[in-house]
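Many introductory courses stop at the sequence. We go one step further.
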Amino acid sequence: MSEKVIRLNRVTPQQVFSEYHRCVTYKESLGKHGMFEQNRINERFYSGDQWYGVNCGDNRPLVRHNVIRRIADYKMAVVAAAPVSVQFSAEGLPDTPAVKERVSAIRGQLQQGGSMNEPISADEQAQTIAAALTDYFATTSRRLCLDTLGRQALRNAYITGTGVLYTYWDDSIRTGLYADVSRTAPICGDISCEVLEIDHVYVGDPLLEDLQQQPYILIEQRKPAERLQRMAKHYGSADWRSVRPDEGGDDMSAHATVITRFWKEWNEDGSACRVKAVQVCRGAVVRPEWDLGVKLYPLSLFRWEEKRCRAYGESEIPNLIPNQIAINRTVSAGVWAVMMMGMPIMLVNGDVVQQPITNDPGQVIPVYGAGEEVQNAIRYVDPPAFTAQLDANVHNLINDTLSQSGISSALLGDIKPDNASAILAVREASLMPLQMVQNRYYHFIENVARIWCEFWMAMYGNRALKIRRDGGVWYMPFEAEKYRDLLLDIRVDVGTGNPYSELRTVETLDNLYKNGVLTAKQYLSRLPQGYVPELDALLQELK
């Protein structure tokens, strides 16, 4: 990249907070309640706090039949059910079976202690590195618990409309590797990930859908002022003493708002860029401007529902809230009516009945007076007639809400599994509306892989990649500078995600093996994961 870069004016805390307040104002203008309040409402309805703010007293039962939670949990489980893996390959280079066989042989040599020297060609080196990155992505995913992070981002996306995964470089991570043979110079630093709330992430142009085209991105955090002062001193900030709590005063344990601003600086011809960042609080710079070393913003977004000309996603919970309120009110009214019929209100004539009334079974109540007075001393108030249609109305409302949300009895498993093929056909037809959401989730994982690869190429330098393969672990030499300009194609592979799909896969493999189409090794290697314990060791024994 050319060293001639378009330099912006020095970013000041006043500029960053001006941009921050402008972004906050925009979010507050969205919808009826604003983004922040709407997200809080969505969270309460999802978690079951659905009578919040309704002053109904403590006398009546406030029933919650949480349909939203049932819909949300099912859809999130479907979207993230299938295991995903990421495949890297070098663009512009052949990737034929012969090349793959040659790459496999080269990797075998490296595993035995060989090196990436002649007679290995440049093309073979590139494809070998791409294959190694495929395995290293799986290793990094296990280290960072990408499955868990993905589920957290997925939950945030359903409730607030947008899930955000932030990748950053952590210098404190110990890798167990050393830069010298005597193991005296440890290699530290690696990527780390954090799921962020969309309430704390702001984009410079909220009408621009492509995150990588944003003029800048802001991340808001709240940290103790004392900790921010230490950070400012560590990074050599000249005004570290100006870091104060938001509320003022001398209590440095109080929190202050710190904002991290990301932007891109382009070279003069606009052909390449670098991502820069700065951290500021009110009136002070916590971390002066630094170069992340990557060309992509280190954030990956997953939008549950996309909206034209909108950087933020949309949640479906606001559309379900009216139905949820109607269900809760109807169910509560039905429960209260039944209680009134079983335990009606008692009226007592205090002039005739002098002793306390406990309403206990078998209580003897002395009443003095004429027969008419005795008859009118105690009586029950007949509750209004209870219509039998109320219960049917509740069930219809619940079923209609589930149906309109794309959930049927076949999806929820409320049918008798007599015919697995028919059930699978019904399920696959019912799952088609969720395919678009699944595709957006897989694109989200693909963006994560692309960002990780940026950090590997920019920050790793000369270090070995940990490869876990064939039941063992080995380390492959990797010179990041050498492959920094390598153009990689990234593809997400999706496995089977439900027991019916796995059952059909196994039945197909059984038929192919019985008819002699597959060998034992081919059959075993294609079984769904977990069907055969210690499968890798078994395949090694068959070689």
